[in-house]
Amino acid sequence: MSLALERRLVGGGALLCLLALWEYASGRLVDPMFLSSPTRIYAAGVDLVVTGEIWPDLIVSAQSFIWGYLWAVAVSIPLGLVIGWNRRAQYMIQPFIDIMNAVPRITFLPILVLWFGIGIWSKIAVVFLGAVIPITIATLSGVRTNEARFIRVARSFGASPLKLFTSIILPGTVPFIFTGLKYGAGRALLGVVVGELYASTAGIGHMIADAGNMMQTDVVFVGVLMFTIAGLIINAILDRLERHFERWRPQEAAR
Amino acid sequence: MSSLRHWLERNERWLLGAIMGAAFLLFWEGLARGWWADALQPLIGQGAEKLRIRPIFLSSPSAIAVEAWRMYVVTGEIWPHLGVSAAEVVFGLGGAVLIGIPFGLISGRIRLLSHAVEPFMTALNATPQVAFIPLIILWMGTGYGTRVFIIFLLCLIPIFMASHAAVKTVDVRLLKVAASFGASELLLFRTIILPGSIPFLLAGLRLAIGRAMIGIVVGELYGSAIGIGLMINKAGSTFQTASLFVGVLTIVIAGLALTEIVRRIERRVEIWRPEAQQAVNS
Amino acid sequence: MKPSFMKPIILALVMSCAGAAAQAQDLKSFKMGISAPVVTVLPVWLGEAGGFFAKQGLKVETVSMEGGSRGTQVLLSGEIQAMHVGLAPVVQANVQGADLRAVAASANKMPMTVFTAKKLEPALPKGIKIGISTFGSETDIALSILLPKLGMTRNDVEITQIGGTGQRFAALVAGRIDAAPLLEPGVSQAKVRGFIPVFDLSAEGGDWIFDAVVMTAPYIKANRDSALKFTRGYIEGARWGLANEAELRKVIALRFKTQDQAVIDATVAEFRKLMPLDGRPSVDGAQTVIKELAAIQVPVKSRNVDDYLDLSLIADLEKEGFLAGLNKTYGGK
Q1: Among candidates C73, C95, C162 on the partner chain, residue whose Cβ is nearest the Cβ of B142
Q2: CA atoms of B236 and C134, how far apart (whole Å)
Q3: The complex's ipTM?
Q4: Are residue C88 and residue C216 in the same domain, yes or no?
């Protein structure tokens, strides 16, 4: 039996066991109002798709995620590279990044609404704030953990700072950037939920909140599941991109 | 002259940080007091009003400082809240470490188990876990135990994942050599796997601290006793923005302090990589 | 950035903007925040369903706020023109420097009934665990009114934050709390479950502005025309719903996403009971709110109801004969 097959069998089996247990417990051990059940969630999901009710919400959430995340990527990678490379920039900016990283984003919501309105822009801003910090932190720590030996060797051969940057620092930082991108994607998705809890007219987060108020637990789970699936897809895309970048790098020894 | 320069250079780090911090606070105070709106009014007209922010939205550094002084020193009303929340973090985070690390290491080491847990981990990690909090309240009630449990759950995932991943990065050659000399599994764990995993475990711990701080705020959305999260929520719903910021800053400072402690430990552990930082900085 | 990947998204964005612009061409946009889909928001939905806002030249859009106090902040930011919220958050916001006014009300009573999961002796014994939405909210204040009537203080019971009426109902079912004040549709659901109603605050609690249309004073001053138009559409919507039960039931079924006739019946009855025919906020109710807030240590500076209510809009509608016209068209209750 190949390893990949074993992995799928065992993983899938465990997942099926859990679903079966859940289905059994619901209605027997626990009131379905609290836990719903896999079949109910599936039925609710199919219903939302067939009636087309879910699409407007999905489109709104996807828009705020994509724009917020792309903005975050565009800002945070250059920012992280600069802070990691320039000591003075680091001293000036890093305290803010550390603090922003520690402040719960919900604190910023009122001010974001004030500046960006209750439309899609305030949601984009929440997503942006969620993703920009981890990607910046990952990028800058990537720059700083570059092998000092390589930098010294390159310097002693008279490499210009630009050359040093493009040929050693940047490639060495790529794996860190991807770690940040993945973590940032998770935070950005959470930002969609948080942003839509507050002053929203549509979106999956809005759908979850609404269903929660009506005690439609199955719809809540459908919404949460949408985020799970989105997270998995984004992770898979990033994994693939990362492998693409990694191909030309020398492989590390034993993994 | 040169001694001043020397001094400046030596203290550059905190000087630059302090200058930026002061500039930021000044900017913030100006937003609340309408300095910038007044100054830019002739230039950009009505658009400048966006820079005048009423205290009910953002408060101001001076108002927050006054409120903090009142809550910490004059009335001391924040201390009981702080004590309760600190205990929650200790129990929740401590539980997550005690359970997450051994289970993560074991599941990373045993192949079949690893295959069984991985799909759950990936899925759970991609799920906004805060959406489950209302359900947890229904299962467990709103007591103190529930709040500890919420923090525990939020912290468990990064710690478990870090330990799980750590085992996989251990050099297989080392394990093979040791095993061929007849080392027992326990010995392998103690001498190779655990030491090799420590940097990962610490990184997981750092993530977990951040999530514990979030856990204080979201876990205390419900319930009746005291706590910093509850204080923040109450201040928010009664529009006392300055108190809200005192609460948030308390959590932020606590989070930063804990993270810094872990970072110090990390630096000690990472002595094997001493040159990187110096080379970039020089 | 891959162009093939971005293209549909850009297209969708452009199209959504264009669509909104085309619709808003002849109707003036008016955004109304609601904290939760409850019975007292019905006039907004009815005004929309019956086309009464469009008749006034407004396109009203409802925005979910997840909680009255957050919505109040958005209202202050000027992003929405009105917010549907009780008077208690209005007073609390004004204490902190806001300038909000309630202009029309859909409930001058507290439409809450306190339920216990089991029959208890006495009905609410000491040491009981009671669920509320959040501290400082209407449910919290409801307890401040109720407990003294039963000879207890807040220290005699355990008050715990649970969330909206749906969550409180679920917590009762799960046995996590012993008692909770509930609103429709929670009240009828609780009756179906066989829970015990111990205290009906709408019958015994006196006047209380529980839910109202709130605007900022500067907005009313600068946009009196729009404010009047909205109020007309709002009250006419309510009257239309009260006179046409079939339409009222349709709106309830749509907005509450339910086909449960018992729930719809109860909601219709509740709406009839609560909605004042002229939409006038009760001055007595405002005074009770101010008094009770002071009792739970909210530092209320002004006890003058005019700092929280603006009755001049309804007075204008009366003067111009709009209210009398409604009485003619839709009759009494």
Answers
A1: C162
A2: 11
A3: 0.77
A4: yes
